[in-house]
C-alpha cells in the first residue's frame, strides 16, 4: 500500500514537478520509520536513483536522515553522500560515528572524499586522519592541497592504469579488476616508471583490437591533457571540445596525478556559467551556495559594484546639472529623459550579451570584429529609427514638433552609440586578456547613461534655444 | 622543417591562445599545398585532434579546404564534418561531388547526418535522397521529423542493442561487433519484440558480471529515460543529474527510438545557457550563430523588447512630469535622479541574477522563499545605508542638509524595494511555471525606475515643501 503510494509520488518526481512530491515522500518515510517499517523504506529507496535518494533524505528531519542512510549498502551510502549539498554533507558527517565515517570515506570516490574532508572543521579532521589508512591519508593530503579554481581541485585520483606491454585481452582483464575502485574504466592510462604519461587507451579500442595486440600499439600517445595548476575551466573546455569521457591531469614534472571526468567537467561548466552570470550583474566572485550564504557574505559580494556605480551615475547627474538652464526653459524635456537614457543602456546591454556569450562559446572570434561592427551599425540605426518612431507622437503631444524632433534625433544617436559600446567592450576586454563577461550590463549601462544625458541635452540646447 | 614549424604552432593552439596560431597554421598549409606537399599536410593533420583539424580547415580558402579534407580517411572526414560550424558544413557539402557526399553521409553519426541534411537546400536534399540506402533514408526522415528544441531533435539512432537472453560474455562479443557503428558501446539497450525498452546495461557491469550470467539478470530494468517530445533541456538535466553517459529516448508508445549522448547533452546545456543569458537581456529566442545571423534576424530578435521598454519608461517620464512643480522649485534634485533610479535597478538586478541562477541550478527551491526574503531585507537595508552614506556629502554640497536627508531616505527605500522586486519576480515566475530567467534585468530595472521616480519625488515633496 504505502509502497504503491510512494511509487506514484516517484513518477511525479521524475516528471520534474518534483518539489512538492519530494516533501510528501519525505513525510511518508518519516511515518514509515515511526512505524518501524524499515524494510519498506529500504525497498523504496533502492528503487530510486541515488541522486533522488539524496534529495529525499535531505528533506528528512535530523535522526531520520541517518536512519535512512544506514538502510543502504556502504557502496550506495558512499555514492549518496556525493550527491548531497555541501551543508547536508557536513551535517551528516558530523553526526555519524567516527568509524562509520571512516569506512564511508574509504568507499567514497577520491575527489568527493577530499571535498568532504576539506569542509569538516579542524577538530573533526584531526580526529579522522589517524583512523584512515596511510594511502588514504596521503591521497587526501594530495587532493586537498590544490588551490580552488585549479584543475587540481576538481580532479580525482582513482583512475585505471595499464602497463604498455599487456595484450589487449590481458588489459581488459586488468580493467575488470580495477572496475570496483576506478571512477571510470572506459579510459585507461599507460604510465612509465616515474609515472610519466605514455598514452591513453579507450576500452572501446581495447575491445576492437586483435586479442594479442599490445596496449603500446593501440594507445593514443598524444592525448589531450591538462596541467594540475591550469584553471579548472581549461579542463571543462577541453572535455567539451574533444568530446572526452575523462581528461588526464599532469603535474609540473609531467607525471600523471589525476583525471577530470566528464561529469565533474560538467559541474565545472555550471560553476563557470554561474560566475559569468554574476559578472554580468555586478556580483563579485562568490564561491558558495546562495541558499546557504550569510548576510555578510552576500553584502560583501554586492556592495563594491553598487557603490562604484553610484559614483558612476554622479557623472550623469553632473551632466544634468550642467544643462540646468536648458531644462528650466523646457521642463517638458524631462518627460523623455528616463526613456532616452534607458534605451541606450538597453540596446547596449543586448549587444554586449550577444557578444559576451558568442565569444565564450567560440561562435564569434576576435578577428570577426570589423565585419560585426559594420553590421551592428546597420542594426542599431534600424532599431533606433523604430524606437524614435514609437515615441514620435508622444513627443508631439508632450512638447510639440520641435521637442519631437529633438527626441527622435537623440534616440537614434543614443541607441547607435549604446549598441556600439555594448558590442565593442567585450572585444576590448578580450584583447586585453580580461574576461569579456565583465564588460556586460552595468558598465555598458553606466556609460550609455552619461552619454545619453549629454547627447540629449546637447541636441536640445542646439535645436531649441 | 615545415613539420616542426607546424608542431610549434600546434602547441600554441593547444595552449588556448589559439586564434593567431590557427591563422598561421592555415597559411602554412596553403603554402604546402601550393608546393604539392600533400603527404606533409596529411601527416600534420593526422597528428591533430579532429576538433582542431576542423578549426584549421575552416580557415583555409575555398578549394584548399576540400583538398585538405580529402587527405583524411573517410572515417575521419565523417567525424570532422560534425565539428564544423553549420555554415562551413553546408558550404563544404555543396561543393563535394554527389557520390562523395553520399559516402560521407553514410559514415557520419546518425544525428549529425540528420542535422547536415536539414540544412541543405531542397534541391540538394532531393538529389541526395535517391542515392542513399533505404535504411539511411528512413533513418534521416525519422530523425529530421522532430521539432526543434525537443529531445527528438538532438537524439541519435546509432545505439547498441542486446538481446536479454545473452550471457555477459556473448554480450561483450556482440558489443564488439557494434563498436564501429554505435555512437557509444559503454551503455547497451535491451529491447523486446516491439522495440519496447526492457532495460539498460553498462559495459562496466557486463565486464564485472560472472561470464555466464544473462544480460536480463544484470540490466537495470528501471533506467532513467526521456520521451522524444520532451523539451531538449529535460534530457540535458537528467544526464547531468544522474551522471549518465547516454540517456534512452522513447516514443509515445514507449518504444526505444534513440539515445542522447553526454556530449550532445552538454551542447544542449550550452544552448540553454545561451538562451538564459539572452532572456535576461531582452533578446528573443534566437536559434542560430550570432556570427552568421543576418541583420534582419538580429533586428527581429531585439526590437520587441526595446520598444516595449520604451513604453515602460514612459511611466517614469510621466512620474517626473507629475512632480514638475517640485522639480522646478528644487532643480538641484535632478542631480541625484539618475543615481537614485539606477541604484534601485542595480540592486534589483543583482538579486534577480542570484535567484534566477540559483533556481536554475537547484541551489534554491521555491519553499526557501520566506527564509530568503527576510535575509534579503537585512542585506538590502545594509546595502542601502552604505550607498546613502556614500552620497551623503555630495548631497550636502549640491543641495544642503535637507536635500541630503531626502536623498538618503530615498536611497534606502529605493534599494530595498528594488532588491525585493528583484528577488521575488523569479520566484513568482517559477510558481506560475514560467521560466524565471525571463524575470531578470530589464523587467526589474523598468519597475525599479518607475518606483524610484515616484519614491524620490514623493519624499522630496513631503520634506522640502
TrEMBL record, chains A, B:
<dbReference type="Pfam" id="PF00571">
    <property type="entry name" value="CBS"/>
</dbReference>
<dbReference type="InterPro" id="IPR000644">
    <property type="entry name" value="CBS_dom"/>
</dbReference>
<dbReference type="GO" id="GO:0005886">
    <property type="term" value="C:plasma membrane"/>
</dbReference>
<dbReference type="Pfam" id="PF03448">
    <property type="entry name" value="MgtE_N"/>
</dbReference>
<protein>
    <recommendedName>
        <fullName>Magnesium transporter MgtE</fullName>
    </recommendedName>
</protein>
<feature type="transmembrane region" description="Helical">
    <location>
        <begin position="443"/>
        <end position="464"/>
    </location>
</feature>
<comment type="similarity">
    <text>Belongs to the SLC41A transporter family.</text>
</comment>
<keyword id="KW-0129">CBS domain</keyword>
<keyword id="KW-1003">Cell membrane</keyword>
<feature type="transmembrane region" description="Helical">
    <location>
        <begin position="403"/>
        <end position="431"/>
    </location>
</feature>
<feature type="transmembrane region" description="Helical">
    <location>
        <begin position="303"/>
        <end position="323"/>
    </location>
</feature>
<keyword id="KW-0479">Metal-binding</keyword>
<dbReference type="InterPro" id="IPR038076">
    <property type="entry name" value="MgtE_N_sf"/>
</dbReference>
<dbReference type="InterPro" id="IPR006668">
    <property type="entry name" value="Mg_transptr_MgtE_intracell_dom"/>
</dbReference>
<feature type="transmembrane region" description="Helical">
    <location>
        <begin position="377"/>
        <end position="397"/>
    </location>
</feature>
<dbReference type="InterPro" id="IPR006667">
    <property type="entry name" value="SLC41_membr_dom"/>
</dbReference>
<dbReference type="GO" id="GO:0015095">
    <property type="term" value="F:magnesium ion transmembrane transporter activity"/>
</dbReference>
<dbReference type="InterPro" id="IPR036739">
    <property type="entry name" value="SLC41_membr_dom_sf"/>
</dbReference>
<dbReference type="InterPro" id="IPR046342">
    <property type="entry name" value="CBS_dom_sf"/>
</dbReference>
<comment type="subunit">
    <text>Homodimer.</text>
</comment>
<keyword id="KW-0812">Transmembrane</keyword>
<dbReference type="InterPro" id="IPR006669">
    <property type="entry name" value="MgtE_transporter"/>
</dbReference>
<dbReference type="Pfam" id="PF01769">
    <property type="entry name" value="MgtE"/>
</dbReference>
<comment type="function">
    <text>Acts as a magnesium transporter.</text>
</comment>
<keyword id="KW-0813">Transport</keyword>
<feature type="domain" description="CBS">
    <location>
        <begin position="219"/>
        <end position="275"/>
    </location>
</feature>
<feature type="transmembrane region" description="Helical">
    <location>
        <begin position="335"/>
        <end position="356"/>
    </location>
</feature>
<keyword id="KW-1133">Transmembrane helix</keyword>
<keyword id="KW-0460">Magnesium</keyword>
<dbReference type="GO" id="GO:0046872">
    <property type="term" value="F:metal ion binding"/>
</dbReference>
<keyword id="KW-0472">Membrane</keyword>
<feature type="domain" description="CBS">
    <location>
        <begin position="155"/>
        <end position="218"/>
    </location>
</feature>
Amino acid at each position: 500500500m504505502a509502497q504503491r503510494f510512494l511509487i506514484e509520488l516517484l513518477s511525479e518526481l521524475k516528471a520534474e514537478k518534483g518539489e512538492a512530491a519530494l516533501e510528501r515522500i519525505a513525510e511518508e518515510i518519516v511515518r514509515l520509520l515511526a512505524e518501524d517499517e524499515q524494510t519498506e523504506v529500504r525497498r523504496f529507496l533502492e528503487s530510486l536513483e541515488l541522486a533522488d535518494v539524496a534529495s529525499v533524505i535531505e528533506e528528512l528531519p535530523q535522526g531520520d536522515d541517518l536512519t535512512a542512510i544506514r538502510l543502504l549498502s556502504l557502496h550506495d551510502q558512499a555514492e549518496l553522500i556525493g550527491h548531497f549539498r555541501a551543508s547536508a554533507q557536513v551535517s551528516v558527517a558530523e553526526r555519524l560515528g567516527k568509524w562509520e565515517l571512516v569506512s564511508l570515506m574509504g568507499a567514497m570516490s577520491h575527489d568527493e572524499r577530499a571535498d568532504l574532508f576539506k569542509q569538516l572543521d579542524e577538530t573533526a579532521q584531526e580526529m579522522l586522519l589517524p583512523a584512515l589508512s596511510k594511502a588514504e591519508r596521503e591521497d587526501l593530503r594530495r587532493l586537498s592541497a590544490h588551490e580552488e579554481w585549479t584543475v587540481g581541485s576538481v580532479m580525482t585520483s582513482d583512475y585505471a592504469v595499464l602497463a604498455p606491454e599487456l595484450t589487449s585481452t590481458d588489459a581488459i582483464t586488468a580493467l575488470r579488476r580495477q572496475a570496483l575502485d576506478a571512477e571510470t574504466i572506459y579510459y585507461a592510462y599507460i604510465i612509465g616508471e616515474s609515472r610519466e604519461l605514455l598514452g591513453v587507451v579507450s576500452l572501446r579500442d581495447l575491445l576492437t583490437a586483435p586479442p594479442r595486440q599490445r596496449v603500446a600499439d593501440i594507445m593514443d600517445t598524444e592525448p589531450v591533457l591538462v596541467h594540475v595548476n591550469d584553471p579548472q575551466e581549461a579542463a571543462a573546455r577541453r572535455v567539451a571540445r574533444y568530446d572526452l569521457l575523462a581528461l588526464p591531469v599532469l603535474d609540473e614534472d609531467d607525471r600523471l596525478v589525476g583525471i577530470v571526468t566528464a561529469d565533474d567537467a560538467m559541474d565545472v561548466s555550471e560553476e563557470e556559467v554561474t560566475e559569468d552570470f554574476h559578472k554580468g550583474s555586478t556580483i563579485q566572485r562568490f564561491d558558495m551556495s546562495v541558499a546557504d550564504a550569510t548576510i555578510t557574505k552576500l553584502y560583501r559580494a554586492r556592495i563594491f559594484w553598487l557603490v562604484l556605480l553610484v559614483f558612476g551615475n554622479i557623472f550623469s547627474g553632473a551632466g544634468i546639472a550642467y544643462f540646468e538652464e536648458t531644462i528650466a526653459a523646457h521642463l517638458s524635456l524631462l518627460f523623455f529623459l528616463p526613456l532616452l537614457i534607458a534605451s541606450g543602456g538597453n540596446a547596449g546591454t543586448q549587444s554586449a550579451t550577444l557578444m559576451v556569450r558568442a565569444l565564450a562559446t567560440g561562435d564569434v572570434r576576435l578577428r570577426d570584429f570589423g565585419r560585426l561592427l559594420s553590421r551592428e551599425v546597420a542594426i542599431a540605426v534600424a532599431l533606433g529609427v523604430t524606437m524614435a518612431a514609437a515615441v514620435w507622437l508622444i513627443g508631439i503631444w508632450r512638447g510639440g514638433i520641435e521637442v519631437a524632433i529633438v527626441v527622435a534625433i537623440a534616440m537614434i544617436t543614443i541607441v547607435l552609440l549604446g549598441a556600439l559600446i555594448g558590442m565593442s567592450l567585450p572585444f576590448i576586454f578580450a584583447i586585453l586578456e580580461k574576461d569579456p563577461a565583465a564588460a556586460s550590463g552595468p558598465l555598458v549601462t553606466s556609460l550609455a547613461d552619461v552619454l545619453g544625458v549629454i547627447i540629449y541635452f546637447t541636441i536640445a540646447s542646439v535645436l531649441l534655444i
